[in-house]
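Support case: pyridoxal-5'-phosphate complex. Customer-provided input:
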Amino acid sequence: MEVYMHNIIVTRTTNAQKKPEKGEKLPFGACFSDHMFIMDYDAALGWHSPRIVPYAPISLDPAAMCLHYGQEVFEGMKAYRAEDGRLLLFRPEENFRRLNRSNERICIPYIDEALCLEALNQLVDIDQDWIPDSPDSSLYIRPFIVATEARLGVKPSDSYLFMIITSPSGPYYEQGIKPVKIYVESLYVRAVRGGTGMAKAGGNYASSLKAQMEAHKLGYSQVLWLDGIERKYVEEVGAMNIFFVIGDEVLTPELSGSILDGITRKSVIELLRLNGYTVTERRVSIEDIAQAYDDGLLREVFGTGTAAVISPVGELRWNYKTMIINNGEIGAVSRFLYDELTGIQWGRRQGPEGWSVEVQSN
Ligand SMILES: *Cc1c(COP(=O)(O)O)cnc(C)c1O
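Agent response - structure generated as follows:
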């Protein structure tokens, strides 16, 4: 039995699963590694009993509050295998800082970020053979917290489970980076100011499915959300923040409380500024975007998020208007950011201080 600094107790599996073969197709989030991290919370003990155990189903009381009122938050990040064999994480402390901001909004007790980082390090170290070594593949990491109190009254739960599971994933772009078609959603909304849009919470996704399905039917891969009050200002895309290159300026919606504070978004803003670009964070309306398009100034549109890193947008459809961006091809700013960020993540390039964190082995 191994016990770590924060008393994380490890029970190794005696039934290791077959790892994916090199080059095997790995649909996103469909296959899971041998172990998982788990920790409990109750009012008397606080967060306690951190442990790494074999990956297995968990048991919940049917009255567990997460099953009824959606008290749940999550994170998404990746572990990368560098060519020289190092195992790398990308700004992982940002994810646990954000997890606590989500906790605050959803009334879940704060969690010790240092303990989370250590748990993540141990879990990735133990399951390191699950990190694919094919190009552009990684181990997707999903930390999450669910309310477990068996109670049908509406109130914050008094017990929780915090878990981290990991899933080997193949390249996001099977045939090289390809611009996507996005539907600007004018009927449904994702979040409103004062709501839970800034939290990474499952409930935000439940409310987004309907629009997503309707956009799929029309041949669009995702929706671009507008603000929940006037349906006028641009917010974000599915699980990505959005950027526009207009003339010489790079523009992205400001953090208004209803959009997610993406770590890729933040890194893109920092990288662009370090490289001499002008980046503005402000409220921007879809009319202004359409006007820039008509004026021939809308040079690029791209989404940012952990899964795709940079996702160029080749077409934006807003009501009856179809905007074809940069001839449906990836633009120079998107290409630069994609190469730079993936270079840092996979350890091919040196990024700003502290962005790449090496997994320590035990
Ligand atoms: C996770 C997420 C993002 C992207 O955040 P990253 O930290 O860059 O991965 C953007 N929008 C929503 C709604 C998200 O859930």
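The chain has a mean pLDDT of 95.

Case will auto-close in a few days if no follow-up is received.
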